[in-house]
Amino acid sequence: MLPNCTDDKPPVQVNISLSLINILDVDERVQILKSSMWVRWHWKDCRLQWDPKQYDDVTVIHLGRERVWIPDITLYDSASVMDFLDVIQYQRPVIKYTGHLVFGFPSIISSTCYINILNFPYDLQRCRLKFSSWSYDNKFLDVSNSSPTGDLSAYVANNEWSLEGFTVERSSVNYTTSSFPDVTFFVEIRRHPLHIYINLLLPCIVISLIGVFMFLLPPESGERISLGITSLLSMVVFSMNIASSLPATNATVPHITKYFSCSIILVACSAVCTILIMRLHHTSDSIRLPRWVKRVIIECIGSVILLGQSCQYQKV
Amino acid sequence: MLPNCTDDKPPVQVNISLSLINILDVDERVQILKSSMWVRWHWKDCRLQWDPKQYDDVTVIHLGRERVWIPDITLYDSASVMDFLDVIQYQRPVIKYTGHLVFGFPSIISSTCYINILNFPYDLQRCRLKFSSWSYDNKFLDVSNSSPTGDLSAYVANNEWSLEGFTVERSSVNYTTSSFPDVTFFVEIRRHPLHIYINLLLPCIVISLIGVFMFLLPPESGERISLGITSLLSMVVFSMNIASSLPATNATVPHITKYFSCSIILVACSAVCTILIMRLHHTSDSIRLPRWVKRVIIECIGSVILLGQSCQYQKV
Amino acid sequence: MLPNCTDDKPPVQVNISLSLINILDVDERVQILKSSMWVRWHWKDCRLQWDPKQYDDVTVIHLGRERVWIPDITLYDSASVMDFLDVIQYQRPVIKYTGHLVFGFPSIISSTCYINILNFPYDLQRCRLKFSSWSYDNKFLDVSNSSPTGDLSAYVANNEWSLEGFTVERSSVNYTTSSFPDVTFFVEIRRHPLHIYINLLLPCIVISLIGVFMFLLPPESGERISLGITSLLSMVVFSMNIASSLPATNATVPHITKYFSCSIILVACSAVCTILIMRLHHTSDSIRLPRWVKRVIIECIGSVILLGQSCQYQKV
Amino acid sequence: MLPNCTDDKPPVQVNISLSLINILDVDERVQILKSSMWVRWHWKDCRLQWDPKQYDDVTVIHLGRERVWIPDITLYDSASVMDFLDVIQYQRPVIKYTGHLVFGFPSIISSTCYINILNFPYDLQRCRLKFSSWSYDNKFLDVSNSSPTGDLSAYVANNEWSLEGFTVERSSVNYTTSSFPDVTFFVEIRRHPLHIYINLLLPCIVISLIGVFMFLLPPESGERISLGITSLLSMVVFSMNIASSLPATNATVPHITKYFSCSIILVACSAVCTILIMRLHHTSDSIRLPRWVKRVIIECIGSVILLGQSCQYQKV
Amino acid sequence: MLPNCTDDKPPVQVNISLSLINILDVDERVQILKSSMWVRWHWKDCRLQWDPKQYDDVTVIHLGRERVWIPDITLYDSASVMDFLDVIQYQRPVIKYTGHLVFGFPSIISSTCYINILNFPYDLQRCRLKFSSWSYDNKFLDVSNSSPTGDLSAYVANNEWSLEGFTVERSSVNYTTSSFPDVTFFVEIRRHPLHIYINLLLPCIVISLIGVFMFLLPPESGERISLGITSLLSMVVFSMNIASSLPATNATVPHITKYFSCSIILVACSAVCTILIMRLHHTSDSIRLPRWVKRVIIECIGSVILLGQSCQYQKV
């Protein structure tokens, strides 16, 4: 039975507050945020009022969960429905003599969170935690937030993600005959990119640079191609390494993936160029370029890219 | 006891509806679809009717699950039987004064889904979710779908898979003495191939091309074979990488596997050719081809593939 | 209490039938078969008989599990005891007015299965599923199978394994004072080897062949040894790859492991030979073979393996 | 109801003791300590007193958990809330005739633990285990520790971590109207670095040294660059290997990561230098350095780094 | 209440027997033994005696677990407390008319086991399974073993480990005022090393040998160093491969790790030697060794290691 205090039966007002304790894990690939939260629901049940003077000055009691009415608030973004249901079973609400109940519990929450990786590793994620009654509409139960932001008083900072915001909104989902009010928390977190810089970008840039210096190697040195291929494979391995830890999105290709793809294509082109140069270098002089090709290259292109001196060398 | 309203005991009509919220994961290897669904069953129980005027205008109540009859609808394609049973335990059906019950619950469903990977990464998967009573046949319980398609009003798009359809069919499995009606939902999803292109096919094609350019390298350059072997090993690694994420099917070999296998064989052949060429190149002139072999090669084959000029070179 | 119908208390006859729905996974390393099964137990309980005419023509009822006696049939080969126990809790037996009960439930069964990998990937596995009462011996409870084979009417074919047989046997384990009858099902499955061919054997054979062609390379080409070492390492990686997915057996070394070990030794020998040849090739002529060694090699061995021409070359 | 013995209702004194049995796992990446603990709570409930003489000399009884009041002590640093709640369900408190209760249970505790990896592998971790009542404040329930340190009498040493301390503190979290006393245990563990030395640092230093010896190779030997690149890639692989097992921290970059990053940059620089040297070595004499550059290098820099003799060689 | 039969209240005698069915897994890294066991507890409860003649010749009944007193025997070495507690909930003890109870259940036991890897892969592990009452001391409950060894009648041999012994000891842990008797089983298992030989040692020895033959290569062949580096990296990969599957112990460094570390250092030294030799080989004659160095090397050291002939060669 709903805890209605008056005969006109207003909806039960359930106040929802949430304390973020810890961000345990952000799994980019399956797009799940795992966090440690303290959930608290406050409401009033007039049937649970008493006069403390008559009852030995007892002002607060703790009853078993099955003895009182508990709202069926559900986390709509849960990625593990049972976690939430199980932990509720063992909790006891705190009941004041005025009929106010507090039902709070610690919880490890796994929630789905759309991970936008366009700007990886500079990404800012915004994860939704929507709490609403599962079966009572707004004629029976209304939810509200206790403060404009979530509670961060017990928050322990995460190493990998910095918390940018923990806001709360009260909104409503309207159906034809009824509407379901909800309280929605938004956890905004920004990735610390330093770890990515050191462990992923630094080696990658180093390898790219080596791939550039490849062109300084003399063609008669046999190392030129193996250096190019090694750079290429390293780039591919790095690219696959990053891809395996990011979600397989379609709409947004992260900039870092574009960078890697371009790098791979560039290094591949330079490897092909090297092969062509070695082909020319080893070709006997009996196969000559037509005179007009030479003129075009040396006079037109050469004057553009100032090929003068190295061109002398190439002809030797 | 079955909730029969009349003495002729017609089968109880249970209406099944399903809302797809999220496709959480498609594991191609073990062929399991993990999705977030809202399940709703509607039926009528005449024993749970009352006159609201007599009961203080209460039109809707929520009773504990153990107080009323609940149909034993089972997901026949479940890959994790307990998930479904556990989550049902904690839900409370909503009962209207007319005797109509609604039993709905959010659920993370793991269902087996035959993954057809012939056209990977262009594959379209069709996953079945068959709901039917476990122990009541059609003389006792009948199921029906509420609409010709599943409910997508709360669907949140997935990054990796686009939803192509979410249809529903009512069919029946007939045994000798009884038949079991069922409501079967079909989730049709199509893979976004962009992610595969960038992270798997692009590097692979780049490496294949490098393997082709290998033939441009002069034989006296020692790099030719190491380049071929590197290409070959890279192809093998890519092939094993893809194979490990696809189911080990027998009936259908995916086209992409065929492509990789052919690439491997081709690159291997070109490596062998290179070895043979280097053998010829280094062989001293004292071992000569018989005159007729030369003639056959140069005059017959040469004229076909226009070998003229490079043949000159080969003879030097 | 046991459901004895007569005063002489014969053992309760429990009929066990099993429907194989799906083979979900065969984990060769930890030797576990994961399958989706429908289990059905039939028995008679005289205390649950009634006259349908007196009870409003009700011929079948569904009672909660805790209201009736349920046999404690246990899967003796279970690799996850709780899976089976949990799923039983939520099921309701179907009771006919004659006193016959049917207790059936869908189940995901993880059972230990001795994996014989001698003939991998041509292996045929035979997994046992032994059902027997845990605490009632044959004086109290007797089990029997309903048909000579398990039920395959709802079987959905697996991609990786083809079902060769699904037989059932009734046997008995005898102790000094009592004996426990059991019904044992055998799932026989044969691996589809095509997937192994394409993804594991094809690259491996290709690499072995390249290792053979190594000998065609001229010794003065520096590539000969790096090619040999690359082949060797690739063989080792393939071998470790297969080994990691097979159980670490002692009694039976699979033929494929023997093949890989021999290949590794052969490629290693050929690499060593190459090193020796290069040593000889680069050695200055001042260190000469003794005359009698030459004679032995050229005249004795040479005539056997027709070394004539290439021997000329070696001396140049 | 709270077990108040007198009318002035002092807070219930709950004594908390903890025995560390085993450190099962320290997962640096997700920052979780998994340990095997024995938890014991002692308190007094006056309602559970009796006179043993009247009751057949029974001085101790064991009652089911649901029959008596149990304090809702919660592990605030738990990383798996259900583990703790589940195991409590099955335990029976021991009740003495004086009204003293002991509620103890073995538990596998997963607790979050901030891992400071600055000094890895010489790191000393300090993991907090805070026990406090969840819903009773200090007016109702007070906690205390039984001894100044945790109990180590049954501790079994861990292979990887040595226990440096297991202290306990009693503190209090104060809110505006109430305060929650807590008993906090600190597990201090120090990593045994020998395993890291042998398996991670030894190979890494060996590879770095090889990268240094690279400069001894003559420039005309083609191996110089491939050796440098191999060293570079090995360093990168080692660096990624370590990074994957450490948490992605921002505030503190571990010294070992700094060392690896510097090594990578150094080896990369030496590879680039090698490329430049080979460039110079192969450049034909027709392109000469300006006279003043030579003078600067040889006379100024050369005199500083004593370039005399090798400079002679470079000019040849 | 304890099942005391007489007024002097002797401790309840609980007889513990254990049948080992299967060794499912030995995880060396986290040091956990996973085995399939049948646990059986026997004791006498005088309150559960009856005269079969009065009760229709019923001599044995099965009661629900919650109806009778069950000893709180706990596995002290459990690595997963809930596994044991859960499976007990569903079992029914068998009660004889004499008051003797048998409480048996199949169980998958995960127990911590100190893994001594000094002699890997020749290691013999001894895993303890200590059963004792959790809250009853020896004044209330006494445990005993039924036979000097554990029951192996239903044991199915493991592929990877051979069972060397399954002994049982009865001992006691004494505290100041009370003592807790326990029954401790020891599972002794010996690893089959054949699998390690073939898949880990064979390739490793092959690669070491190749690293030795490196010295036979002529210095002017550029392959010498790349061969050395390849051997070195292969050794490192093998070493890391083994290290990742063994626990990170400090006290005992396994012999195989020492072997690998020495091999790495040796191969590294040989690579450095090769670099030095190449340096000398390529150095122009203008830089000469001082006369006295030559004399020392050739006359003193040379005469020791019989350097005669190859010394000649080195000077050419």
Write the layout of secondary structure elements.
5 copies of one chain form a homopentamer.
Chain A: E1 12-27, E2 32-44, E3 60-62, E4 73-75, H1 81-89, E5 94-96, E6 100-112, E7 124-133, E8 141-145, E9 161-174, E10 179-191, H2 194-213, H3 223-245, H4 255-282, H5 291-305, H6 308-315
Parallel strand pairs in A: 1-8
Antiparallel strand pairs in A: 1-2, 2-6, 3-5, 4-7, 5-6, 7-10, 9-10
Helix pairs in contact in A: 2-3, 3-4
Describe this structure in words.
Chains A, B, C, D, E: InterPro entries: Neur_chan_lig-bd (IPR006202), Neur_chan_lig-bd_sf (IPR036734), Neur_channel (IPR006201), Neuro-gated_channel_TM_sf (IPR036719), Neuro_actylchol_rec (IPR038050), Neurotrans-gated_channel_TM (IPR006029), Neurotransmitter_ion_chnl_CS (IPR018000). Chains A, B, C, D, E: It is found in: Membrane. Chains A, B, C, D, E: Residues 6-193 form the Neurotransmitter-gated ion-channel ligand-binding domain. Chains A, B, C, D, E: Its main location: membrane. The structure is a homopentamer of 316-residue chains. Chain A is of the alpha+beta class. Chain A has three domains: 12-191, Neurotransmitter-gated ion-channel ligand-binding domain (Acetylcholine Binding Protein, Chain: A); 197-282, Up-down Bundle (Methane Monooxygenase Hydroxylase, Chain G, domain 1), CATH 1.20.58; 286-316, no CATH class. Chain A is 33% helix and 29% strand. In chain A, the strands form two sheets. A six-stranded mixed sheet of chain A has the order 3-5-6-2-1-8. A four-stranded antiparallel sheet of chain A has the order 4-7-10-9, with no helix packed on it. In chain A, helix 2 (194-213) packs antiparallel against helix 3 (223-245) and helix 3 (223-245) runs antiparallel to helix 4 (255-282). The longest helix of chain A is centred in the C-terminal third of the chain and has 28 residues, at 255-282. The interface between C and E is large, with 54 and 55 residues.
